[in-house]
Amino acid sequence: MRKLSFDTPDEALKFLLDGNRKFINGEPEIKNYCFDSMIKSLEDGQKPYAIVLGCSDSRICPEIIFDTGLGELFCVRTAGNTIGPNVLESLEYAVKKLKIKLLVILSHQDCGVMKYAMNAPLYNDCFENLIYQVQSVKHEKGLEDYDALAKEYLEVCKHRLLVKSNIINNAYKNEGLKIVKAYFDIETGLVNIVE
Known about the structure:
alpha/beta, 5-stranded mixed β-sheet, globular
């Protein structure tokens, strides 16, 4: 297990993006996920250096696309990276108790939730909480492309975190928490930062 700590969230982000390049180039540093080399080194607890709020799509595994090992990332994954009460509290725990200074909100190309939200009725009984959050962006921005919707939804996620959580808002404004919006391109494997 790599012992990693960073002085700034920017250093941690650079490390993640470098890991993504290793993933794309087929040169991962993390190759051996076995009990002795991973879990045993974490017996004294976890000290992740980044939080990833991402989609639960089975093609998007943050630990793999960023070439990280166990104990490095605190991942919270939901369909469409939507934010409900349990998700918010999980992120607050990572910020307040684990003192993590980098939070990456990760959306991706070809997201099923974004596709469904594009054509679902505004009010329906299926996936109500997921769809409502996403459709508000679709209608407000007049978007017709689900990949554009996934990118635009990142800003909604960031705004929601800052409005709904005093813990995250305070850490962002006063304690050096960096919130980064990122988009994973399934065709290329590249994680792009969305400004």
